[in-house]
Amino acid sequence: MRGMEQVSAQARWERCTQRPLLGLAVAFALAYAVPIVDTSAGHALTAACTVVEWVVWGAFAVDYVVRLALAPRRTDFVRRHWLDLCAVVLPLLQPLRLLRLVSTLLLVGRRARMAPQIRLTTYVVGAVIGLLMFGSLAVLSVERESPQGNIRTLGDAVWWSFTTMTTVGYGDHAPTTGLGRMIAVGLMLSGIALLGVVTANIAAWFISRFEKDDVEERRQTEAIAVLTEEVRLLRAEVARLTAEREKQRH
Predict the structure, then answer these.
(1) What is the pTM of this model?
(2) What is the chain written as a DSSP string?
């Protein structure tokens, strides 16, 4: 009974915190984007954005700790949500904005997938937009000051992110720094994974339609077979009654 109450408490916590955490994720997106897009941002604004980033990450870290405390089997929870744990610990290893970006994206994605009302299509579209936006901002922040780099504006970064995620790779823009290339690898792998999810979803839809058509066809075939058998039995009964009537006449 206690385990059921703990599971119920965990589910209530996840339902209650889902929207606030997603709202904090939007705040993180704005705080991350402002210093990169607005190159004239002052020290005070940049510091405020940094504080917002850490506050959002801290909120997701607290959420993980609370869910762990409410879990009926904490060892199983950690085993099933090891990626969440890595995302919580990641920014503590080294105070890089890119690490906070990666960890927050992971935590937002993990919490969003727990929501039953979020459909797969909505999740994929949101993931594409999020990766495109954050990938563009991340590569712009590390490549803009590179002497050999050619990703200087937000437009260049968005174009590069789009071609990288779709694995087209025209080559007109390319990262030259180590962090930039790491971002490129992440975007390429994410693009391939999302393409696989979309392809699998479409294939599953066609398979379900074919299976539904097959079930309907089998049902109709069985109904026709039953009806045919009933007609045969009815004819046999009519023939028997007709024969008996003829015998009575004679």
Answers:
(1) 0.55
(2) -HHHHHHHHHHHHHHHHHHHHHHHHHHHHHHHHHHHH-TT--HHHHHHHHHHHHHHHHHHHHHHHHHHHH-SSHHHHHHHTHHHHHHHHHHHHS--HHHHHHHHHHHHHHHHHT-TTS-HHHHHHHHHHHHHHHHHHHHHHHHTT-TT----SHHHHHHHHHHHHTT---SSS---SHHHHHHHHHHHHHHHHHHHHHHHHHHHHHHHHHHHHHHHHHHHHHHHHHHHHHHHHHHHHHHHHHHHHHHHH-
